[in-house]
Queue: 2 jobs
Job 1
Amino acid sequence: MRLASAADAARAIRTMQVRGAPLIGATAAYGLALALASDASDAGLEHARSLLLATRPTAVNLRWALDRVRAKVAPLAPTARAAAAWGEADAIAAEDVAANRALGEYGLRIIEALSARGPEPVQILTHCNAGALATLGWGTATAPIYLARAAGIPIHVWVSETRPRLQGARLTAWELREQGVPFTLIVDAAGAALMRQRRVDLVLVGADRVTRNGDVCNKVGTYEKALAARDNGIPMYAAAPSATFDWTLAAGEDVPIEERDAQEVLYPSSGEAIAPSDTAVANPAFDVTPGRLLAGLITERGVCAADPQALAALFPEQAR
Ligand code: MRU
């Protein structure tokens, strides 16, 4: 699809034609650049920024990218703003690819260590799509998986379908098939049972916002995976570039959780409603996993525990 205006970009983000925290951020950055090509005034800049910021509340990459582009162009003469904004959007896109590649290397070491235990494939469970389709390349949770595949390490991925929008079934399954990674699709509720049966060695997920204390906000259903992983002694990591860290928030309960339309639940695909159309529905799109349940965070700077001290050590410039 082709986006030709900030309104196009905003619609694509809101309707999830583009989704996934890093891709949402980059799309918004390009949306702002498109807007400045037609109205580069201060009012034009603020209007476009507000339009894009209002699309979805949870993935912090959206605000991060918009603020970064605004900081770049605000000091400039209006005539120079559109080109500068486009350049900044390009930089955001390129940095995302590099960050995912880098965190992939750190995640690969975790898979290698598990693989050293024996010839069996390393059994990895993932939830939602934190893949190349959610980023500008490599994905976050998928980057270690693709590098392990390239290194010839035997792996198998359990793909949680991820109701209600089925990002796992529709996107992650597609990506893994394209990349020749062995995988099996499961319903969301099957993950915990597989963990209890010792059929999962590692859980890898992405993130939409990581707070200063190491809490991770990600697709709804991630928290219950973390509870099952902890109960069964299975390491679970959230992979995220630093653009997904919100240093302004102390803890996960401060993250705004998007509530999406009931239609997404009632009509999983364009077919029949799964319940009477007047059924009351709650559709929180994300949940928060306390850092204490995670084995760690995989970032482009390395792996650290999901706690404030470890994060401050890895990101000293953010320490307070
Ligand atoms: O509602 P979505 O599809 O935008 O949710 C996406 C997720 O929760 C991803 O796991 C997260 O954004 C990381 S994408 C690298």
Job 2
Amino acid sequence: MSWFPQKRESTWLQRACEAVLSAGPIPRHVAIIMDGNRRFAVKNSLAKSEGHVKGFDKLAETLEWCLDLGITEVTVYAFSIENFKRSPDEVNCLMELSRQKFARLLQEKDLIHQHGVCVRILGDISRLPSDLQELLAEAVSISANNKRAILNVCFAYTARDDMCMAMRDVADGVKKGLIKKSDISEYLFEKCLYTSHCRDVDLLIRTSGEIRLSDFLMWESSFSCLAFVKVLWPDFSIWHLYAAILHYQRNHGKIQIARQNNAIERQRLQRESDLKCVMEEEEEDKSGVNTKDNPAGSSGKDSPSGVAEQKNVQSRVQHYKEVREKRVEEFLRTVHSKRKQFWTSLALSPSDVTLKPSQSVSVC
Ligand code: FPP
Ligand code: MG
């Protein structure tokens, strides 16, 4: 099946449901754990590989539903690093299916642009066969400027691996003196994750009845609405999506409050950290050479000179904040440009990775 299947006419009942749902908040970013492909295969006396093919078909259908509903960003768990532990046959089958589907996506270039979909791959793709890496990079490259919707495909991904990678980048930044240890914050850390360019995940859906995250978007889903659906992924229908959105709408208020509280707490922690850094600098100044402007123990807190000193501290904190923000943004630019370079160099790779329309690939 294509990534952009023939659109089916909605029924009056679907239109009615959509009208009701669109009166409430629609999640802008939906993440999906597409679980249950193999159980679907067993249930329907199919080969495992067929279960995954049906899983892809359902993904294509679901993306269309999301676009129609105004969901502008979708993130899917296509291949976990843990999946490498499956039998070599199944791993090869999933690699082959991905090769075939991404080659198809490249053939459907016009359709990607028509739908305005930007494809991003999140994960450690260096673990994948090099021809597949190049295909993925090309899909990312040709769709990079599309603005209507974003599809994030988590491939060779786990949240713990992502966090380790981010930690390495941060540690490297400290070691090279690009940032200070005190610059490390929730903000800095999440801007080093694969999802740094994503908006907040509003709704996370997992199919197949399993009630766990399986190492998917663990950081990003802290303030998301979670919907665990019993149906196996290839059996997922638009009605399950409507039900998940309704569940999101019922919990929307509480999620917003939790997000706001977290934002306030982050700001408080950051202010505290900046003040601590300024105080530490001041201590260093006092014990060191620069005592001219800030003589040690110069005044009481409430005396005129004490008030002046407090103002002086405030302006130093403000100055420190500006310098820190500049330092952090510069560091993040370095991290992101390194990653961009990695993708660009892969996409420019000399081998011809796109399949000719006449070449068909049989899956497994
Ligand atoms: C989980 O079901 C599904 C996967 C591990 C693979 C998901 C992949 C697809 C739906 C295809 C996507 C392809 C592209 C190109 C994006 P499972 O295998 O764990 O099934 P089970 O839970 O019944 O054992
Ligand atoms: Mg499973």
